[in-house]
Amino acid sequence: MVTKIPKNYKPTVKEKYMCAKHKAFFRQLLSKWKNDLIDQNNRIIFVNSDDNASSADIVDQATSYSGKTVEMRTVNRNKKLISKIDGSLKKIDEGTYGFCEETGEEIGLKRLIARPIASLTVEAQEKHEKQEKIFADD
C-alpha cells in the first residue's frame, strides 16, 4: 500500500520515527534525486555524443578534452550517488532505512533530510572518518 503525503509535508519528531509517512517522504525525495541525476547524466552524454567536431587548433582541443573530463567525472559521481540512492530505497523496502548500519540507532530526521543517503549516525560517521585518517596517515 502506498502512503499518500501532503505536497508540502515535512517529517517531524512528533511522529513515530520511520512511520509510513516518513518512509513515503524519503522514498519520494530519493526517487526525485535519482531521476534528476539520471536526467543530468543523459544530458551530458547526449551533448558529448553530439560534439564530434574536432578543431585543428590544439588549444581548442585541449579545452574541449578538459571539459569532457570534468563532465565524465560528473557522470561517474552521479552513478555512484544513484547506486547509494538505490541502496537507500532498498533499505526503505526492508524497513532498515534511517537506522545506523553500525549501531542500529536512529540516524535522525535532520541528518536524513540533509543527507538522505546517510547510513551512519553523526557519531559513527565521525568515528569512521577518524579510522580512515589513521589508516591514511600510516
Oligomer: single chain
CATH topology category name = Four Helix Bundle (Hemerythrin (Met), subunit A)
Beta-strand content estimate: under 5%
Rg over alpha carbons = 20 Å
Total number of helices: 4
CATH architecture: Up-down Bundle
Q: How would a crystallographer describe the biggest sheet? A: none
Category from helices, strands and their pairing: mainly alpha
Describe the structure.
The chain has helices at about 20-50, 60-95, 110-115, 120-135. The chain is mainly alpha-helical and about 140 residues long. The protein has a single domain (about 20-135), classed as Four Helix Bundle (Hemerythrin (Met), subunit A), CATH 1.20.120. Helix 1 runs antiparallel to helix 2.
How would you describe this structure in keywords?
mainly alpha; single chain; 0% strand; Four Helix Bundle (Hemerythrin (Met), subunit A); 138 residues; flat
TL;DR?
The protein has 138 residues and is an all-alpha fold. Helix content is 65%, strand content 0%.
Topology:
Layout lengths: L19 H31 L7 H37 L14 H6 L7 H16 L1
